[in-house]
Design brief:
Two copies of one chain form a homodimer. By secondary structure, chain A is mainly alpha-helical. Chain A is built from twelve helices and no strands. Chain B binds a DNA duplex through helix 3.
Chain lengths: ~200, ~200
DNA sequence: GTCTATAAATCGATAGAC
DNA sequence: GTCTATCGATTTATAGAC
């Protein structure tokens, strides 16, 4: 596990001077928050961390992966949402709600997510939440479900889910705060399904 | 209107020593935020301001009036919502959305309201927003429209409106942020009407 | 153990004296 | 403008019947 206390110290490669991986993450968080995902280049992140751009890919894979890591989400939304995306448009709202509630009703995940929501009122936090929620979390719904006007439909879905979060988990308004998950699914699924699939006005 | 600059200064009664009205307001804000509307008595507010309870009524009328004043809302929700309450259940969602958007799309009012929303993450601000939004603003919908399960229906309505506020006015997500008001009404009215009038699950 | 009746305290609001 | 006195309603607590 380590070569400390083996009698023969200083064997092998020493740990990288300052923790390179952490510096890349810090640089990414700062830049993503300040300029948004689209306007931040991997090269800029590498420069901010004082490392070679190739190291960014070495540690994190794609720029998307790095963004997800920088968000510090308790779950990888691309994994969690897979069953939602793969099931087709029928019943998509219901599956989405179930995934959504299972994450938010887990206490550890909830605390982490609340931290993200908290940043809403600072410009950097807004940018992060916009790109994260609309881009990474709900964005894939558009292509995967074959939505027309994907941006608009996804924004409508997001508006209802964000409101549910605010009332149930932030403001803790009754009876929403202690309502059974299945009842919530039954209540909100028709709304979300309408936003996803029904004809949009004008 | 005033005796300033009339050439004969200091006419009439001078303003009361410490501004009693303002002290009552300050005391009310503190107590409403800390304990909530229901658990705060007019007597406690008066004690906090060091004045007689009757003065509270003298300056502000009812306890409800005082609460609205303490919220520093840009409009009196009880006045603004009158047409919503009086029109009956049919079309209530549409009328509610129109009033809602007319207030939020006014810049002065919006800035003031955003200040209220900002307090969501502090316990005192939560209490204030809960009592304000659910109690004063949307609460009257229950009795006026003759809703069954008024608490639940009003909370559902609030969850969609709060989400719309977050996406359109706080996060400023497109295309919601610059969407025409009438399109928004047409989009969200069916959702709100369902929350108000349709059978609820379980 | 559960429900009802009643007593006590507290509250919001008003009228009127200073 | 400020305060005393007080009403009527609501809430809270207690006691006793079943």
């Amino acid at each position: 596990m380590s070569n400390r206390h083996t009698g023969r110290a200083n064997r092998g490669r020493r740990p990288g001077a300052p923790d390179t991986r952490a510096e890349i993450l810090a640089s990414a968080r700062t830049l993503f928050a300040a300029r948004g995902f689209g306007s931040t280049s991997v090269r800029a992140i590498a420069a901010g961390a004082g490392v070679d751009p190739a190291l960014v890919h070495h540690y994190f894979g794609s720029k998307d992966d790095l963004f997800v890591a920088a968000l510090e989400l308790p779950v990888d939304p691309r994994v969690a949402l897979r069953p939602v995306l793969e099931g087709g448009l029928d019943g998509a709202a219901e599956r989405l709600l179930r995934v959504f509630l299972s994450v938010w009703d887990d206490e550890t995940a909830r605390l982490s997510l609340l931290g993200l929501i908290r940043g809403v009122f600072e410009p950097s936090g807004r940018q992060l939440l916009r790109d994260g929620l609309l881009g990474v979390v709900l964005g894939p719904l558009g292509p995967a479900l074959g939505l027309d006007e994907p941006q608009r439909r996804v924004a409508l879905v997001a508006s209802q889910m964000m409101g549910l979060v605010m009332l149930r988990y932030v403001l803790e308004v009754e009876p929403l705060a202690s309502m059974d998950g299945e009842v919530l699914v039954a209540t909100y699924a028709p709304t979300l399904q309408r936003y996803l699939a029904d004809p949009l006005p004008s």
